[in-house]
Amino acid sequence: MDADGEKGRGTLLHTLDRGLQVLEAVAASESGATAKALSRQLEIKIGTCYHLLRTLVAAGYVVRLSGGVYDVGPRAASLSRHLQRRAGPSPELSVILTRLHNRTRETVYLSGWQHGTPTLQHYLTGEHALRVGALDVGYVGNMHARASCKAILAHLPEEQVAAMLKGVPLVALTPNTITDFDELTVELARVRGRGYALDLEEFRPGVVCLSAAFSDEGGIPVGSFTASVPVTRFTERQAGLAAQVREAASMATTLLRTGRIVVPSAG
């Protein structure tokens, strides 16, 4: 077997995976991370961790600061900008999200289509710093439990929703999560009637989300705006937050239908 044989590919892929884990952990750290901290966090031998970090530094993806702290390097920052240009929202939609954030003072999210899946594209953290840890830009999971996705699904053709979710295990993330497809279709009908979707502690305990979808000139949903609030503030804020996410969605729909912005389709 040559150097590019099956065994060699397995070793290289494992090393690449570890290197990406290190890069991701460095990027996620608030003020950089040391090799020892990364070694403990990722359960990587300290020698291996140093080797991966040296490789990432040499490639420009990581920089070594004083005190042995590693932070994101220029090539990683450039990669991030390229990814944001390809998958991020248009400037017009980002402005609407900022307006929603300024009006609600809560954590707000913008989702849209990427490769045929509703995808979290951007968020702004509220004054009370409510952030659901699992949610970050690019997140696509658990559509049945998230208001941002239910707002979009409610306005898709029933056969498309069935193709995406029928027969797929709907994981119970909390005691409130809808795990039956037929029950989910009933909930989507409620969303259409109400004009916005709710996540009543279905994705994370203690967190409620309200979301409204925006659509193109053909009436096909292409994204949603979401506000997230602690359950303790939900009752007093529901009416206002519902009106504000619906206003944001209406503004985006108007821009789309007048041709002032173009976003990727669901296809």
Note the main attributes of this structure.
267 residues, Beta-Lactamase, 2 domains, 3-stranded antiparallel β-sheet, elongated, disordered N terminus
Q: How many angstroms does the end-to-end distance come to?
A: 42 Å
Q: CATH class of the largest domain, please? A: Alpha Beta
Helix content: 40-55%
Number of domains: 2
> Strands of the largest sheet, in order across it?
5-4-8-7-6
CATH architecture descriptor name of the largest domain: 2-Layer Sandwich
Number of strands: 8
Structure description:
The radius of gyration is 21 Å and the shape is elongated. The chain has nine helices and eight strands. The model is unreliable at 1-10 (pLDDT under 50). The strands form two sheets. The chain has a five-stranded antiparallel β-sheet with strand order 5-4-8-7-6, sandwiched between helices. It has a three-stranded antiparallel β-sheet with strand order 1-3-2. The chain has helices spanning 6-28, 35-42, 46-59, 74-87, 91-104, 147-153, 158-165, 181-194, 231-257; strands spanning 33-34, 62-64, 69-72, 107-114, 117-124, 197-200, 207-215, 221-230. It folds into two domains: 6-80, Arc Repressor Mutant, subunit A, CATH 1.10.10; 88-257, Beta-Lactamase (2-Layer Sandwich). Helix 1 crosses helix 3, helix 2 (35-42) packs across helix 3 and helix 5 packs antiparallel against helix 9 (231-257). It is an alpha+beta fold and 267 residues long.
